[in-house]
Amino acid sequence: MPGLVLPEDPPAAAPPPPAPSSTHGDGDGELEGAKQDRKQQQVRPSTPKRSPIPRRSLSPSSATPRRKSSPRDSGGRKTSPSPEPTSAVNDVALDNPDLGPFLLKLARDLAADNPRKALDYAVRAAKSFELTSSGSDVPNLDLVMCLHVAAAINSVLGRYDDAVEALERSVQIPVPDLGPKNALAAFSGYMQLGDTLAMLGRTDRSLDSYVHALRIQKQALGETDPRVAETCRYIAEAYVQAMRFPEAEELCRQALAVHRERDAGSLEEAADRRLMALICDARGDYESALENLVLAGMAFSSEGGRESDIAGIDRSIGDTYFSLGRYDEAVFAYQKALTVFKSSVGDNHPAVAAIYVRLAHLYHRTGKLRESKSYCESALRIYTSKQVQFEDCEELASGLAEVSAVYEAMSEHEEALKVLQKAAKLLDGGPGQRSTVAGLEAQMGVMNYILGRSGEAYECFKGAVEKLREGGGEQRSVLFGMVLNQMGLVCIQLFAIEEAAKLFEEAKGILEKECGPCHPDTLGVCSNLAAAYDAMG
């Protein structure tokens, strides 16, 4: 096979052969084998957290691993740095069949250290693959992988729209019916597309991509494959974060059905039961939530070294008892979890602070305000300590928002506002954080409204509304309807009656669809709208 020839130089050795593509496997289990290859060959941006809902695990999409380790070849050995072919390769030679794999390898090698140069190589590799495969009816899976790499690098560089464009193009190439290699390429592309859209806050489109990926995976592997259960759990967590609990529950049930047939009592089943408990709790089915938590705890207890997981389940059990009004049992569960966390991770760990916040809520509910405030202060000491390491800023902001909620319940609105402002400063409002920042701004607007600062409240609500509109799917959420209603009330205070009426009308349309025309929140908005019309004459 001809190699690359440097201009004005004697013939050089051919470039190193391309690492085996993840889209070429043999025998049974091709889909899984290809998945493992892709984990070695491709980069993937980290996925940010999007809500106080428990964090999601890494996507089962193997096309976009998030690590940034040194590139390795198919044998697991570190590759030597490749010479930059800037002066050696030009667009005239892109039809060379050796060039595409060579440039793709360079893109993978440089992705962590020089993403801009890596992106240039990936784009040129894609052009080369297109030229060499033109006129062929067989899907070019090397081009698909090249587009996945380019999308991942674009995400690292913050060019999310370019990443989406590359991924949307990539999912049009494979034909899943042609075999597991095509199915893997399509599945990986849709999962990576879902992650990227989620980072942009385009929730509905993100969920659609995930569902499409799951459909392809089921067709390729069957409905009872353990990897299908893993994907179901991942997508269910995405639905939970979008507050779409019926869809999340259905996916979680599918995952549990796979476990009953394949690996009953496994740690994977325990993780799914924890998620199901969260969904049941959110829907008000506390008894079912408690049942799933107990079963999950039994599975973790049968394994050694799972103390932190068991403590996390005890904390969730305390939450469920709290919701049921069984406060003594809730305190016992919280204290049990607190003891384990202190002994395993230390007194100043975020997990300890989270227990303090829960105890503060509980003691406020039972009228023990001194104890409640003491636990709030203990949590704040951890959250504001510079020595405490948090996994990300969003985790810290979420904890501060919980503390603020306790101060608000105690009618200490100034203190609640200060804590919310600290939380908002931690986030930059970038892709993946818009919904979180919008929630904080909306709550700050409520605090300012209560304190009689209508101008500041209006600015907070305005920022929240803009961010929720940018999120696309958020425009149809109950949260968005309530924020519009609150902003309308502020406009009334500022004598902007016409703007208030428009906000109330929009809120009414959303809440009628999401909650129903007879729901108390909908009726409250209708009352506000009637008052605005009356004021307008």
Automatic annotation (TrEMBL):
| Domain of life, source organism | Eukaryota
Which stretches of sequence are listed as region Disordered? 1-95
**The keyword DNA repair is annotated on this UniProt entry:** no
Q: Which PROSITE patterns match?
A: TPR
Asked if the keyword Disulfide bond belongs to this entry, the reply reads no
Keywords assigned by UniProt, alphabetized: TPR repeat
Q: Where are the TPR repeats?
A: 311-344
Q: Where is the composition biased (Polar residues)?
A: 77-89
Where would you find the membrane-spanning parts of this chain? none
Biased composition, class Pro residues, residue ranges: 8-20
Listed PANTHER family: OS02G0109800 PROTEIN, PROTEIN KINESIN LIGHT CHAIN-RELATED 3
The protein's name is MalT-like TPR region domain-containing protein
Source organism: Nymphaea colorata (pocket water lily)
